[in-house]
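Materials and Methods. Structural model of ferredoxin--NADP(+) reductase. The 265-residue sequence of ferredoxin--NADP(+) reductase from Rhizobium halophytocola was retrieved and submitted for structure prediction as follows.
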Amino acid sequence: ETVQSSFPIPENVFAETVVEVQHYTDRLFRFRITRPPSFRFRSGEFVMIGLPNAEKPVYRAYSIASPSWDEEVEFFSIKVENGPLTEHLQKIQPGDTVLMRKKPTGTLVLDALVPGKRLYMLSTGTGVAPFASLVRDPETFEKFEEVILVQTCRDVGELTYATELVDNLLDDPLIGEMAAGRLRLHATTTREHSERMGRATDLMKSGKLFEDLGVPKIDPAVDRAMICGSMDMLKDTKAILENFGLVEGANNAPATFVVERAFVG
Ligand code: A2P
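The predicted structure was written out as tokens:
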């Protein structure tokens, strides 16, 4: 079965070629597409993507997982049964066409945070995608001394994307040296046994997350945070950060934490 069809490519969107697809679990996969030379974005932003399989393609917001210097564009996606986009998107193969709207946007950008020392990137599942972009951007390490990437998933297989990302990054000639000793991954599972278990939200409330990392609890004088996950996770995490004294910021009003509210379904 192919996801391609004879529908004309809509105007004012990029039609890009899939170059790589990697499936992690029956729920998660990653893919890379060619990057149009005129497509510019800030690491951490999202863009609308779709497939040329209908007269009016269905578009969904996808965080760009690759950094702004990358020659290709990477996405990390969930596979939703009967999901209008993802039931087809999960079948794409190299050579297929993916549609991408031209204007990226989003709040998980470095410019939306006031300067600080330590940056927490808090995610569940595919919420790690914008952080996959940001941890590969040298600017993140120019602005922050320490970066802590936090991801909670149901099972170990779902943590593979972030684990491989961080391993590869530390081996990378360009960014590896900058990130060495300054980027750490705190990964937990909730439904399968692993080294670290529990929701990051609970581990922040109990203080265990900070103990594990050997850092003081979140302090608005030095700590900054970005959040990306499900609606419930955003709400719970935001409340915890506000309890620690952090204040939500935006592109036009930088502050001490930011939240991304666009997500894939
Ligand atoms: P749990 O297994 O306890 O539901 P999903 O794949 O459903 O999006 O969930 C991804 C991860 O996010 C799971 O480990 C899940 O834990 C966790 N999670 C779900 N809701 C919340 C929440 N409100 N706060 C923090 N983590 C959450």
